[in-house]
Amino acid sequence: QECAAAAQAAMPPAAWSAADTRGPEGDPQEGDDPEDRRLTPREADRILGKLLLLRQACCHPQVGSLGIRALSSHAPMSMDEILDMLIAKTKIEAEDSQRLLFFALNGLGAVLLLQDELALAVGAYREMLAGAEERDRMGVRTDPLQRLHTLHNLAEVLSRPGGVPGVPPTLRDSALPEQAAKISREFLQVPQGRMLQALGEQRERTQKVGDALKRLSRGEQDWWLGALQALRGEGEEELVSSLKAFLTENVTAGVGTDGSNASSLVHRFRDLHGLGFSIQNELQQMEDGRRKVLGEVQRLQGVCVKPSPGMVFEASHCSRCRPEFAEHGETVCDFCRLDDAMMQYEARLFSLRTTALVRGHQVSADAAALGMDGG
Which of 23, 109, 337, 344 sits between 20 and 30 A of 5, alpha carbons compared? Predict the structure, then answer.
């Protein structure tokens, strides 16, 4: 009502009160003076809606349904904060648009190279670099990977024997490889820092485990052998039956129709001697899995310092890391192979549950660790 009153006061009285003849739907009929006629309800709603948004924006940019929303809180922002947010939003939009432009220029340069149009390709790459420098001065950041792509390709084209016909050299041509190498080093600093941090944590935890194992004597590690030895004798069969019943009850949710399950020791011992052998075998396999994982981690620590081209290719074309390459082959990188070893060790260490899908078959512990079903 307040907005309508303000609008009525600002508009000519004739627009609201002048009589005219209207059709049955309230629309003006032919012959009405456009400057001296009464507004229809539809026109009035349309005008008043715009005036309401204008009035709300004049009160504060955050007022109204179309007002600016704060990103971090619902508290009203000052005009300086609103201005900073608008500038940041516009800057992001400019960077996105620039990224599409440079993507097109790099793509055009690549197509021209394939067509052996070297002079035109150099022109496309130089246009991209000139635009990047100009917009950097305006505060619009250029994607470093796009700049690296352009610098590398341009340096490679200009370094051909005899140069590029029709393309005069410039003073900055000799600096292109160093600029590309600098961007590459800066880009790799972040993952290298994360790798060093993870390496420090891994060494610290490995040291803690080693120290804990050193504090344990051999007898303390094999305490369960003494316990099994003390339980042998009279009542052994009853104890074995009780253990089998307990294990069966605790793996009911994971067994098949015939009760076979690799996560249970039920089907792998008949007496305490067999139970001791099964436990010893499981502990040994867990230790073997741990050593395998630690050995692979140490190997990767060495090769990652200066990875070979083959390792880089596998990491960039791995069918597991990058699903888009799954249809082009079954290349698996060293990191996914390490992940497989860690998953097997973790499955054996914490949880080893799988179900035989074929009646009468059991799943081995190794197959269970690999996630294979019996059949």
Answer: 23
The Cα 151–Cα 125 span in angstroms is 8
**pLDDT digit string (tens) for 262-298?**
445 677 788 888 888 888 888 888 888 888 888 898 8
Looking at residue 355, the DSSP 8-state letter turns out to be: B
Exposed, middle or buried, 158 (CB in 10 Å: 0-12/13-18/19+)? buried
Residue pair 154/176 in contact (Cβ under 8 Å)? The answer is yes
CA–CA separation, 266 and 241 (whole Å): 10
Residue 51 has which token pair? Answer: 């005036």
Question: Do the Cβ atoms of 27 and 40 come closer than 8 Å?
Answer: yes
pTM exceeding 0.85 = no
Question: What is d(CA 74, CA 89) in angstroms, rounded to the nearest whole number?
Answer: 18
Please give the biggest Cα pair distance in the chain.
117
Contact 367, 356 (CB under 8 A): no
Asked if residue 266 lies in contact with residue 247, where contact means CB atoms within 8 angstroms, the answer is yes
- In which element (H, E) is residue 361 found? none
